[in-house]
Queue: 4 jobs
Job 1
Amino acid sequence: MPPPESDQAPGVPSRLLGHLVGAVAQIGERAFALLAHVGDLVILFGAAIRWIAHGLVNPKVRKGNSALIFQIVRVGVRSIFIVGLVSGCVGLILALQLAPPLDGFGQRELIANIVGVAVLRELGPLIGAIVLTGFAGASIAAEIGTMVVSEEVEALEAHALNPVRFLVVPRVFATILSMTALGVIASTVSIASSMAVSITILDIPLTTYVRNTLLQAKFVDFATGTMKATVFGALIGLIACGNGLKVTGGAAGVGNATTSTVVQSVVAIVIADLVFTAIFYALKLV
């Protein structure tokens, strides 16, 4: 004899409610983990700033200039070629893509106006940051993660050497300085490549291109782009060092930290770019 309908009906809603509660709990757990990770990065950044300030104020504290220079060469100088290559290709693409629609209005020479502003404000810092994330951010996370797995970090602590001072500070400071310079280099190469293809293929006179660029691009465009690049460098360095120091689980943990560093850095860079753009728009700087 089948059970009454009143005994069957509550089963389906209860299962749906259970799935809904589980999904909400999972979302809340991930949100809490994200907030905890952001908090750890803020604490790490504060510790790094404290050590930098301590080294600048106290003359007895070693500055670690050799370590900083080594990291700048490793992170920044070795990234110049790939950043220049990608930026140059982007400049060529922009010029060739903008020519047909602007021809419809008889304004092909406005390529210089559009490329100058777009590159200085957005594309230069963004391209440099994404390239640096894959080139140096993953490397930093893997290096520090390997040191954690091989217990080198514990050896530093056993000798009363602070890992933040000797591992994090030179790498974060190097990524900040390197990214600031790479943003300028990326913007310069993009504009130069766009100018080259505009003169040689699109038949735009050099004087016209230079004049339109100088008329459209202002110092505020360069300043805001450079500011973005500096913040992007800080994000890359912090995320890479933070993920490296939290590695667990041997070689698999190092691989997971490297992957997480690239993904988190790209997401953080795009979100920071959005926040900066909104602020600059509110301040009428765009």
Note: The chain has a mean pLDDT of 87.
Job 2
Amino acid sequence: MMYTSNTFVPNNYEPREADVVFLGVPFGATSVSKPSIYGPVMVRQSLKIVEDFVPAMYEKIKVCDLGDLEFVPGSFELTAERVRETAKDIMAVNKKAFIILVGGEHSMTLPLAEALEPKTIVHFDAHGDCLPDYLGNKYTHQTWAWHASRFSRIIQLGVNTKTPGEERIVKERNIERFGFAEFIKKTPKMQKPVHVSIDIDVFDPSFIGETGYYEGKATKEEVFGALDKIGADSLDIMEICDDKLPSKSGFLAADIIQRVLAKRFL
């Protein structure tokens, strides 16, 4: 018997028979913050050793770890096309699969959403990411929500930055913002399918360590309380910028993944 592993799951199922499909996208070309190309590695290694729901999860949930996308360095357009094609190929063989994408910079949420076509996107972030362009670039980690609002209703939680012109954009586009207490108490009705997109910098720095920007103020109780109110159909966790293990943000992402999957499948 060979005691080896190339993923975080004991049995790596084929996409067509999996309940959950995990995909890493280590792309980080448009962000001006700390590079997030090691995000998928941090989360996989954290999922291997986190203890909360693991035994029950692996007994009842079939997980496929597809590995990491072969991204095109420096090209949003070519990498985005690969994300779209990969997500569509997954759905072609398994329409019921719960897709989890781990990045990598937040721009990659856009091609995933274009492929999945959710009616609602619940966006956890310290930043709105809804500018029409950023530093002259149309497609970046700061603009994906502006593009996604063309085809999805976007609900934002945790935004506390004041980007010039963004308040007007929020009013004009299909974007709504809530505080955590308001959202948890009076959860708005959400048309399905619902995609959840989490920028790890939504959290207060004490929860995530040295990663990206530092405007986040959310606590685990706030984020997890909101997640418990959402029936997610897909998930991405982005901007995990640690470059060494153990990873504080990697463990937090692992907790989020298991929390969301436990609510959906257990």
Note: Residues 15-265 form a domain with the Arginase; Chain A fold (CATH 3.40.800.10).
Job 3
Amino acid sequence: MHYDPIKRSVGSVFNKSPFLRKLFYHLLDLLLLRAWHVHKELKLWRKDKGDHINILDAGAGFGQHTFYLSGMNPNWKILAVDVKQEQVEDCNQFFEKIGRANVKFEVADLTKYVSENEYDLALSVDVMEHILEDVQVFKNICSSLKPGGMLLISTPSDQGGSDVQGDGETSFIEEHVRDGYNIKEIEQKILSSGFSRVEARYSYGSPGKISWKLSMKYPIVMLGMSKLFFIILPFYYLVTYPFAFVLNYFDTVTSHTTGTGLIVKAWK
């Protein structure tokens, strides 16, 4: 399935005004389990941080996580980069409209982008599964972090990430260059890239797998079949979201021996 056209179609509906764009971000934060896990880690990270913080959103996409970070502290300076020119221009216009002067979006290729010892935090949410030269990206981010700086990654695992359940199956999202990381593999790749310490854990355990199907997979499949599903989408979520909310909560507060997602933290 070509996921990007569906994302653009949904995004265009909410991009008609800053209010709708903000609503879209908040809805994504409620629906997407990865946002729950990322927000949990960001809240832990911020506890001993002051105002003079530089952040790199490495692969910003729609700007959802940049919006969240810029709301955590208006004094933090955030550079959000992406390879897609139209998304960068769109995000710069939106963040200027809402007065988030601490945010700037730029076009950049993560396999080439380096800014030596610049950032206290680098965030990479559902990005690395799209990049073949992942070790080079890890090296570039390590060089761009200040000593003691942290990289936070959310990415699919090889335990069914991208909805791949066995050999011969293809990813639910065709834009992925890998179906998911083995947890030891990504730890080793990151350590070989210059980081001094890495911690990885599974997300999307048993509760998260069900929630993802209810809140993401089934709606996307139906939208891919017909745009008429836009009409009944609000009613679908009215019925299913209370169940997804409870499942998301349990996925974030419990540990998992396996899962279809990974949350990885690495320190320079």
Note: The mean pLDDT is 90.
Job 4
Amino acid sequence: MFDGKIAMVVGGSQGIGKSIAKKVVQLGGCVCIIARRVEILKKAVKDIEEFKSNNEQFVEMISCDATDIEKLRPLIDNFIEKKGIPYYLFNCVGQAFPDYIENLKLDDFRKTMDVNYYGVVAPILTLLPYYMKEKTGHIINLSSEAGFLGLMGYSTYCPSKFAIVGLSECLRHELKPYHIKISVVYPVDTETPGFEQENRTKPEELKIISARAGLMKPDEVANIIIKKMTKNKFNIFIGASGFHNWAKRHIPWFAFSELDKELKNARKKLGKDTNY
């Protein structure tokens, strides 16, 4: 499916994004990965190139903050002029800094929304004129299980991932006449450098609650994404997120009561008050 096609992976230097880039190349495609840090990008390019099966394939990199559309646009335009229009746009950029609500400042909400939401909007706005002119393309946005289910400790993170879902639904509807496909992905906890970072500030209750759902490997998640997007799925659920989404939509009282029960159990385990 990727023969002769280019995939642009924003946030493709590590984690799920890097695994997606490797899978694309393994299946015969070309990739351009976008991230900020040059050294990590260079290492990722070498790792991804190992999956090439012919000399016509290429792995390119763009070093840029995905939220800075003024810098990003000319870099992507230049890439397209040299290599062609990417058929696939994977938006994998994101970060989480969980904490108790009383420890958070307004700036924490702004920073998270800037990276997780505007870091997705900017690449889309850059590629959209090309897609609309050619009436082709497939945009895949990574949200999260926290993109439809609010959890304690994630008050900065969940709203940004909810926003990705809303944006994806709007794009799905509006871009239908242009034959542009949209997918939104809901991964569960995945063993990435970002996950290690968020665990440093994650409330203990949230660690206990999240641990019940298990931890997936980036390659596992990437394989599921690739498999389901080939079937033109709009919602791509990973692991238990499919059941949790179904429960939230059809029996919300049950979903919320189970979450509340898990919070009480976690607080009890930590020796905290559960009389509320």
Note: The radius of gyration is 19 Å.
